[in-house]
Each structure stands twice: as structure tokens, then as C-alpha cells.
């Protein structure tokens, strides 16, 4: 039997496994999604060595690069550093 | 500041530390509830006269004791992450102070307007005057204006050190060749003590940090007197 059929059979006799799957599966999914976000959107990560070798040099002054913000209003920020 | 037989945190001097104190209260309540519930359950199970020898499982109970810990952990994690992101936000500082760790003293540089640099050595125990604190007081203190957002940049000159002031909720490693930055804001005037928090050799325990926060006009007077006396 496939693994899914085996699990479905066990869940029928032990429905308490359902919250387990929900929380462990949900937590694992959230972790993987955040890892993917970090890989793709974190300015410290460089994938394309030819066209975008140093993305950390291209952050805008009002760009929110973190996932959450509590008290920051990014639209009000402006650049006060000299250009290279 | 710290006192003998102290059990809890020092009083908060910065808004972040206040948040951390409230979060610690929240987490401590949850921990106390869980521990007392577990202790009570174990005690009742040990001293009970009721026995039922054919018990195999209970699906409903298992569902509860899977879902409930997950929810409790979420209730702890969400405030924690909020404070984590809060700590990283910009605070638009008015002043930048550089704290450089050496073996075995700190030096502070206020270079925004003039060049004010000085060293901060611990006062040796035999040279203490009455009222000074052993192993905590220094000859020069890092003076900052009260209620002003300040940028503190921490680095080291030789080996790893760590700039820590528990009352402000700050601990920042001083790494040679690296500049670490944190935001500091004292909500009240006073003198706040900390100690080097990364092993750095023989006198690691004898290079404390003292932050003194005073009103802005007194701060200007202090910078003038430090520049004139240098």
C-alpha cells in the first residue's frame, strides 16, 4: 500500500492524529516558506553573478526588506547618504 | 543596578527593555501555569485510589494535548517576534557614539561635531572612594543625553569583547574588524552599569561599562569640559 493509504487507514482509527498533522505540517510549511522568502528576497543573497552580483548595494532607502514592521513608516524615509 | 541576591531583572531604562520585561512576565506566567498544572497532575496520579486497568487510549484527550501546546507556543512566539522586529527598527539618532573594546578597557568616541575620545578604565578596588561600586565603577563614564535616540557602534581593537548594559536591554558583541550598531534611548536620567560579556583574557571581569544619562544642556557642558581637559 502507498504511504498515503497507510496513513489514511491509521487516521480513521486514531483521529487524534489530525491535529498533529495540522500543526506539524503547518509549522514545517511556514518554515519552508520563510526559507524560500529568505533565499529569493533577502538582499544578502546573490543568485545571478552576472547581472545582479551584489543586491545589498541596491536597497532603496524606503524599501522594507524585513517581513514585519511594528512602528516603522517606510514611506517617510528618504536617502540621506551620498551616492557612490 | 544589580544588588546581592537579586532574582529579577534590573529596572528598565529604555523602551525596548520595558517591552522585554513585559514579555518576560507573560512568558513566566505561562511557564508557571504549565509547571504547576503538570506537578498537580503528577501528584494526583500518584496518590489516587481510583484505578482503571483497561484504559488504552483517549482520542479526545490526545487531540487536546496536541492542539493546546501548539496554541500556547504561538501565544509566546508572536509577542517575541514582535519585540525582535521592534529592536531592529531605525530610531533616527541624533548622536553617534563609538564604543571600542580593548584589553582591558573600553574607549568611547564622540566624533559627530568635535573629536572627543577617552578611555574608560575600571577603578581598582584599592582606589575606590566611599560610595563607589567595586568592579563596576570606571574613571570616565559614557555620558549621553536623556530621552534622545542614540546610535552606538561597537567594535574591538584586539580580541572579542561584548558591550552590555542590562538596564538598557543591550548586549552587542565587539568583533575586531566589524562594526556592530544598536539603538539606545534612555527614558530617565541616571547611571547604568554593565560588564564586558565576552571572554577576552585575564581582566575580562574587570572592564565594566558605565552609561550616565543627563539632560541635554548638562551634556553639552560635559562635552565642553571633556574637550578642554583632554
TrEMBL record, chain A:
**What is the designated name of this protein?**
Cytochrome c oxidase subunit NDUFA4
Q: Does the keyword Cell cycle apply?
A: no
| Bilayer topology annotation | Single-pass membrane protein
Gene that encodes it: LOC114846101
State the GO CC annotations.
Answer: mitochondrial inner membrane
- Family according to the record: Belongs to the complex IV NDUFA4 subunit family.
Alphabetically ordered keywords of this record? Electron transport, Membrane, Mitochondrion, Mitochondrion inner membrane, Respiratory chain, Transmembrane, Transmembrane helix, Transport
Q: Does the keyword Hydrolase apply?
A: no
Which Pfam families does the record associate with it?
B12D
Q: What is its main location?
A: mitochondrion
Task: Read off the InterPro entries from this record.
Answer: B12D
TrEMBL record, chain B:
Q: Which CDD domains match?
A: CcO_II_C
Biological process (GO) annotations held by this record are: ATP synthesis coupled electron transport
- Give TM regions: 27-52, 64-85
- UniProt keyword annotations, A-Z: Copper, Electron transport, Magnesium, Membrane, Metal-binding, Mitochondrion, Mitochondrion inner membrane, Respiratory chain, Translocase, Transmembrane, Transmembrane helix, Transport
Q: What is the catalytic activity of this protein?
A: 4 Fe(II)-[cytochrome c] + O2 + 8 H(+)(in) = 4 Fe(III)-[cytochrome c] + 2 H2O + 4 H(+)(out)
* GO cellular component terms, A-Z: mitochondrial inner membrane
Give the similarity note.
Belongs to the cytochrome c oxidase subunit 2 family.
What protein does this entry describe?
Answer: Cytochrome c oxidase subunit 2
Gene that specifies this protein? CO2
Amino acid at each position: 500500500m502507498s504511504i498515503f493509504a497507510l496513513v489514511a487507514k491509521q487516521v480513521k482509527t486514531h483521529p487524534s492524529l489530525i491535529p498533529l498533522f495540522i500543526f506539524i505540517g503547518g509549522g514545517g510549511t511556514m518554515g519552508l516558506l520563510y526559507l524560500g522568502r529568505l533565499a529569493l528576497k533577502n538582499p544578502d543573497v546573490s543568485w545571478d553573478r552576472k547581472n545582479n552580483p551584489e543586491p545589498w548595494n541596491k536597497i532603496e532607502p524606503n524599501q522594507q526588506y524585513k517581513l514585519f514592521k511594528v512602528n516603522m513608516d517606510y514611506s517617510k524615509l528618504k536617502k540621506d547618504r551620498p551616492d557612490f | 543596578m544589580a544588588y546581592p541576591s537579586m532574582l529579577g531583572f534590573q529596572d528598565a531604562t529604555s523602551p525596548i527593555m520595558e517591552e522585554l520585561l513585559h514579555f518576560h512576565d507573560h512568558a513566566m506566567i505561562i511557564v508557571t501555569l504549565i509547571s504547576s498544572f503538570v506537578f498537580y497532575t503528577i501528584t494526583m496520579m500518584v496518590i489516587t485510589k481510583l484505578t482503571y486497568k483497561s484504559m488504552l487510549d483517549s482520542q479526545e484527550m490526545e487531540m487536546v494535548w496536541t492542539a493546546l501546546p501548539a496554541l500556547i507556543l504561538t501565544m509566546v512566539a508572536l509577542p517575541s517576534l514582535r519585540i525582535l522586529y521592534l529592536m531592529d527598527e531605525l530610531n533616527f539618532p541624533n548622536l553617534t557614539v563609538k564604543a571600542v573594546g580593548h584589553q582591558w578597557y573600553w574607549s568611547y568616541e564622540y566624533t559627530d561635531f568635535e573629536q572627543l575620545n577617552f578611555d574608560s578604565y575600571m577603578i581598582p578596588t584599592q582606589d575606590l572612594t566611599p560610595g563607589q561600586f567595586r568592579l563596576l565603577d570606571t574613571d570616565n563614564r559614557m555620558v549621553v543625553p536623556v530621552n534622545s535616540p542614540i546610535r552606538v557602534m561597537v567594535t574591538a581593537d584586539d580580541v572579542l569583547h561584548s558591550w552590555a548594559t542590562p538596564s538598557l536591554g543591550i548586549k552587542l558583541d565587539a568583533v575586531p574588524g566589524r562594526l556592530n550598531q544598536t539603538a539606545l534611548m534612555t527614558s530617565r536620567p541616571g547611571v547604568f552599569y554593565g560588564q564586558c560579556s565576552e571572554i577576552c583574557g585575564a581582566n575580562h571581569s574587570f572592564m565594566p561599562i558605565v552609561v550616565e544619562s543627563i539632560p541635554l544642556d548638562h551634556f553639552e557642558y560635559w562635552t565642553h569640559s571633556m574637550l578642554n581637559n583632554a
